[in-house]
Amino acid sequence: MAITQTANAHWEGSLTEGKGNVSLDTSKSGSFEIDWKARAEEAGGKTSPEELIAAAHSSCFSMALSHGLTGAGTPPTSIDTKAEVQFQAGQGVIGIHLTVRANVPGLSNDDFVKAAEGAKANCPVSKALAAVENITLDAALI
Question: Which DSSP category does 53 fall into?
Answer without folding.
Answer: H
